[in-house]
Amino acid sequence: MSIQESGEMYLESILVLSKKSPNVRAIDLGEYMGFSKPSVSRALGLLKSGGFVTVTEQGFISLTNDGKAIAEKIYERHTKLTGYLELIGVDKEIASKDACKIEHVISDESFEAIKRQVEILTAK
User: Fold this and answer.
1) Whole-prediction pTM value?
2) Which of 33, 60, 76, 89 has the lowest CB atom count within 10 Å?
């Protein structure tokens, strides 16, 4: 289940948008991510051929089980890392931007350690 960072970002964005509305379209994804229609179309084609998304005839995008697993993993990393950075005093906007970069490269081991640390810090 290997996918590039940009693919992870698309999957995470589809997940976030699907929490707001069950009907996610390419135009919604482009607006949310700030990407052009051709860029979104190309990415969706790759994600579709990789088995990470499906697109209906009406243009609605859904995550497959594999796509959803990756999206949820990245989304959890994003939210936990953002929270951790804020907890240690980083500005909310900067924390979110930095978490977006870190979430794609951090090892599972390091991420789990940060999660444990956040639980300890927030339990007090």
Assistant:
1) 0.87
2) 89
